[in-house]
Amino acid sequence: LPVHPENDNHKEDAKLVQDYLNKFYAIEPDPNQLGWKAKAESTAEKLQKMQQFFGLKVTGKPDSETLEVMKKPRCGVPDVGL
Amino acid sequence: YGVTLPGWKKTNLTYRIVNHTPDMREEDVDQAIQKAFEVWSTVTPLIFTRIYEGIADVMIAFRTKAHGHCPRYFDGPLGVLAHAFPPGNGFGGDVHFDEDEDWTSGSAGFNLFLVAAHEFGHALGLSHSNDQRALMYPNYAYVSPSEFPLSPDDIRGIQSIYGSQPNVPDEKPSTPTSPKTCGSQMSFDAVTTLRREVIFLKGRHLWRVYPDHSEVELELISTFWPMLPSGIQAAYENMKDQILFFKGNKFWVISGYQVLLGYPKSINTLGFPKGVKKIDAAVCNKNTGKTDFFIGDKYWRYDEYKQSMEKGYPRQTANDFPGISQKVDAVFQQKGFFYFFHGPKQWEFDPTANKVIREIKSNSWFNC
Q: I need a surface site. Which of A48, B26, B237, B295 has the fewest CB within 10 A?
């Protein structure tokens, strides 16, 4: 203590990124899938996919422009298919 | 666009509104939902019928946070606004709206008609599009409901699933469709020449007219100039093969498909006083190199060579253009004549004789 406000922001941003990617860029399990599951993607890979979809610079890092898009009101359907 | 196959195997679909949001009057919710379905039935063979009991293909409900057996949850105000499921049984085709949002039929809060039309796209088998102009773009963006919300990308997407034979009922669908040029009340926001073409602008749309061989093409403004807003109020072609577009107190200079760097700029940079908030219409007289800007019942004159406003303006439009006594919506010059537009009327004006030659309908250029 005292907690540095910037650190708080980082924590909040990290949580926002994780929630966003889990919600909209995680392949939803296909109930009819038989056999092996696909390898889980890393956060950076999912972030790149999101940046590519929105026409942002594909850095794999949560830069300010990426965070700004993540904060916009939107539809709850994932951007990547089943 | 993207699709989640397969689509519905039938074209007659039912929907049921399970509950209503207290944010809006019930009849406004019903109308928003009905109009949202009509957006899709206008461009496909699909027919949507409302039922009040039992299980419909598309079950519509307002929910909050985790709700029932739905595999997704809502997150309170903002964030996720609604979600839907692709065609199928069970949750298939169902649409849920987050009741924690502020639902409206206008531009405040979130417009239920726009969000519903987007979610119904999912319920019919579309996934998200990365085209920012598309209704199926994931992020919410308000578009005036009076304008047709589907972009060419959306239409291609839904027609790739259901075909493109619309089942058009005898009377016109009540949902806004792309404007009909031959309607008797057709009016325009702005008109400009573009080399040998004449461009007519209204809302999000523009028409390219080739007067010499009577072709007409309808496009979205954003198809050519994605950086321009809809609702352009004035436009003119200057002497340097450029077009200037005006909206509110801003203007853009376009050369070919590119907006010149540094635009939009304030119209004050052209020499208008602070009190001028918008431009109604503008035309550059190719014979004199002078551009007339029409605002209310007055006009300003700008010297394109000197790049400055002429002294002694504004002047009363009616004094210098006899017969042009109403507010000018749009104006352009063709073969030496000026064509002034106000609502559904147009006046052909001969600047040499300094008089109106004839009054014609605004859509006379469209071979109606």
A: B26
Q: Do A77 and B122 touch (CB under 8 A)?
A: yes
- Tokens read off for B141: 């963006």
Tens digits of per-residue pLDDT, B123-156?
A: 999 999 999 889 999 999 998 776 778 888 898 8
Distance (Å, rounded) from C-alpha B116 to C-alpha B95? 8
Encoded tokens for B330: 């749009």
pLDDT at residue B166 tops 60: no
pLDDT digits (tens, 9 = 90+) for B250-302: 999 998 767 787 888 899 999 998 889 999 999 999 889 999 999 999 999 99
Give the largest Cα separation in chain B, rounded.
Answer: 77
Helices (H), chain A: 5-24, 43-53, 64-70
Q: How far is CA B106 from CA A76, B83, B136, B218, B293, in A?
A: 22, 21, 20, 27, 32
Q: Are B138 and A24 an interchain contact pair (Cβ–Cβ within 8 Å)? A: yes
Reference B332, options B360, B300, B291; nearest CA is B291
Helices A5-24 and A43-53 sit at what angle, rounded to 10 degrees?
Answer: 80
* Nearest residue, CB atoms, A74 vs list B2, B80, B122: B80
B245, B228 Cβ separation under 8 angstroms: yes
Residues recorded for chain B: 368
This complex has an ipTM of: 0.82
* Substitution target from A22, A68, A70, A77 for chain B, most B beta carbons within 10 A: A77
Beta carbons of B124 and B115 less than 8 angstroms apart: no
Task: Say whether A77 and B110 touch across the interface (CB within 8 A).
Answer: no
Would you state the structure tokens that stand for residue B251, as one six-digit string? 């203007």
